[in-house]
Design a protein that fits this description.
about 60% helix; 9 helices; single chain; two-stranded parallel sheet; mainly alpha; about 300 residues
Length: about 300
């Protein structure tokens, strides 16, 4: 509460709230008074309501008021002028449970119209009740809507948290796989041995090293995107790495057929492993470019 002046809704709301409270379940009213100012609010001395005075350090009540809006669990707008309008805009923009009662006019009615565009966690039937005439059960409808909005917002936040957690776990698993694949690709340089006549082991390491590096590159690039799937990226990287290393090795053997008798596979791996990583890292970019209209030749219009 901020003001007890006549004509403001706050005194009436405080009085109604105090009448609804019971000593066995006391309510609580927080008074945000400006510093060095005495409280003007009074509450029944029946133990049903606790009045907490929390003076604000600012001399401008607007600062304390708008700060309270951001920290509120819910906002009810009734009538009002410019301050009510700003409070409504803050509530709608911040996704705070809000109930603009349009029956009494004022800027609350304008906020009710804007809420229909944003909606947030308000249901259509709740919005219709906010805009209808004030009846004996309207206050109950407002309270029920605020509680419903709070529950829906908590559920939405919980769902977003679970999605972000799953996303983080998926990213972590993908990066772990990329790290293992890259280490295995580097290990192939050590394990391939010295130059000599190509055998099955040497050719296997020569091919698998850059392929694993391509898988690592594709997963690392995929982890930088907001919507990713590292397994799909790994398949893309493996495909790109396979094609690249086969073409490169085949070109080397065709250009220098004598390497079939004396192949320095280790020196070759120092080049094809980074080449495989680069191929995997850029494969999806190239693939997307080829699929886009910019990457395809434009057909000339028929005459």
């Amino acid at each position: 509460m901020f003001s007890a002046r006549h004509g403001y809704a706050e005194p009436a709301i405080a009085e109604g709230y105090a009448q609804a409270c019971r000593p066995n379940a006391p309510g609580r009213i927080v008074l945000r008074s400006l510093r060095h100012r005495a409280s003007e609010f009074t509450v029944p001395d029946n133990g049903a309501v606790i009045l907490d005075v929390e003076p604000d350090s600012s001399d401008m009540w607007e600062i304390s008021f708008y700060r309270s809006i951001l920290n509120a669990d819910g906002v009810v707008l009734i009538g009002g002028g410019r301050t009510t309008k700003i409070a409504g805009i803050i509530g709608v923009a911040s996704g705070i449970p809000i109930a603009p009662v349009a029956a009494f006019g004022g800027e609350a009615a304008h906020v009710w119209g804007e809420l229909d565009k944003s909606r947030n966690d308000v249901l259509q039937d709740e919005l219709a009740k906010f805009g209808g005439p004030w009846r004996s059960n309207s206050a109950q409808n407002v309270a029920a809507s605020l509680l419903g909005q709070m529950l829906r917002r908590e559920e939405r936040h919980r769902s977003e948290f679970l999605q972000s957690s799953a996303f983080a776990r998926n990213t972590g698993v993908g990066l772990a796989v990329a790290t293992v694949a890259l280490l295995a690709a580097l290990a192939s340089i050590i394990l391939i041995g010295d130059a000599g006549k190509p055998d099955t082991r040497m050719m296997a390491l020569l091919l698998m090293g850059p392929m694993l590096a391509a898988i690592a590159g594709a997963i690392v690039r995929d982890s930088l995107q907001s919507d990713h799937g590292w397994l799909k990226a790994a398949v893309h990287g493996f495909s790109a790495g396979t094609v690249t290393v086969l073409l490169y090795v085949a070109a080397q053997l065709l250009a220098m057929p004598e390497q079939l008798n004396q192949l320095d596979a280790r020196r070759l791996l120092f080049f094809v492993v980074p080449l495989g990583f680069s191929t995997g890292f850029t494969f999806d970019l190239l693939f997307d470019r080829l699929r886009s209209e910019q990457g395809l030749p434009q057909a000339s219009p028929e005459k």
